[in-house]
Amino acid sequence: MKKVGIIGTGAIAGIHAAAIKSINNAELVAVCSSTPDRAQEAEARFGVKGYSDITTFLAHPDLEVVCICTASGRHLEPALAAAKAGKHLIIEKPIEVTLDRADQLINACQTQGVKLAIIFQNRFSSDYKKLKSSVDTGLFGRLLMGNAYVNWFRNKEYYSKSDWKGTIEEDGGGAFINQGIHTIDLLLDLMGEVSEVFGKVQTAYHQIEGEDLGAALVTFKSGAIGNITSATALYPGLPERIEIFGSEGSAILEGGKITHWKIKGEESKLEESQIFSSSGAADPMAISGILHQKQWEEFILSLETGDDYAVDGPTSRKSLELIRGIYSSSKKKATVKFPFKE
Questions:
Q1: Structural domains in the chain plus CATH codes
Q2: Full-model pTM
Q3: pLDDT digits (tens, 9 = 90+) for 287-326
Q4: Cβ-Cβ contacts under 8 Å for 36 (sequence gap 6 or more)
Q5: How many CA atoms within 13 Å lie on the side-chain side of 181?
Q6: How far is the C-alpha of 172 from the C-alpha of 72, rounded, in Å?
Q7: Residue 330: which of 150, 189, 202, 167 has the closest Cα?
């Protein structure tokens, strides 16, 4: 039984707490918030010991795993403290908001010999796993194009009621790094390494520092190309969508479910999804916790077996690198080559 503590007690922490509670080999034992009052509220909410001092939190008896649910740009410092204390880490996406901060985090975990996982729960849906397996076995032939569309909407209160969402320092930007990154992670997992990108982002609707509208043209190292859009300004918000086109067939994953599947010479068959999927297209909390639970199950299992974990720091860095490249391309009005350095 792995003892788990959560740092950051906002809305997403509730989804993690429920996921931890639902699995047999993990137990939530402590939470850490930013002030004594918030820690007391969290203690009552989660029914475990609440702390406002991270040093005391990390000294909680038998604590082995730390889940970080703070604002994106506040991941590094508590992660460094936890890694130094010998705790394994599972962190909400993105890994951090700049490549330098991400690399500091990855290096610290490697130095301290602790495991690092980043939450990309959509990798664990049955429909995505089917798509990924089919791409990897060559069912679609040579990949020609891979597109990712995250044409979402957020009302103005989403940003006005937060002290960090949409800010450069603590959110890292806007629609790409916060909302689009989940689907971009899947696209990269399917299509492979990026060769270059040309991007354009802008703030069209919301009064925020980051972007609420953007598009990018990607060239992959394989020679395939792709389009990416990400937004929080497109009313009413449509389910996120991935399109894969190969020399032998194509597929579409929309809102976490396969909605199109066609292989040359085969009858098209769409099977009912085994796992409920949902989209945060218009409501950030309109997501199922089932996939968080599945990611937690696999992470805890990897701690017990010592096996490598697929959604680790270096893997999760790739989506951040592409997004930072898109931001740089938009600013420079020029194509950005990869590997990208800030």
A1: 2-121 (3.40.50.720), 124-282+311-337 (3.30.360.10)
A2: 0.95
A3: 678 999 999 999 999 999 999 999 999 999 999 999 999 9
A4: 52
A5: 29
A6: 7
A7: 202
